[in-house]
Amino acid sequence: MFTRLFVAAAILTAGPAHAATDDADVLAPVHAFFGGMATYDQAAMRATVQPEGSVALLRKGKVVRRTLGEFIDGIKPGKDRIEERIYDPLVRVDDDLAVVWTRYDFRVNGQVKHCGTDLIHLVKMEGKWVIAGVADNSRDTCPG
Fold this sequence. Notes:
Layout: H1 2-13, H2 23-38, H3 42-46, E1 49-59, E2 62-67, H4 68-73, E3 82-94, E4 97-108, E5 111-125, E6 128-136
Parallel strand pairs: 1-6
Antiparallel strand pairs: 1-2, 3-4, 4-5, 5-6
């Protein structure tokens, strides 16, 4: 009797069935995307995304929308060092769909220019996680 109750409880609390995915697998294209951005490497960035995916940047009460491809086209080499750092990412996965919710700060020449939250959703295509969309908000006053 105890065994049957234990098994029933385990089934009821197990959540959706899906193949095990390590958070690192989901975060790999996110880190590669930001790494490509830091080196102004558009090809590296494109390798991590669905170019037709969406970007929604919340800036000063307005939403700036473009495709991921258009966003990448705007990352052109410059004299400044840019870097987006993410902190404490929360990863959720269900089968071939994943989401990353994370705090970030964006730096130019090592100085924080703005910060906020990134919301990144990914899909698994042909066994590989790719970024399908990004949304973020932005604040100019950031913790030190």
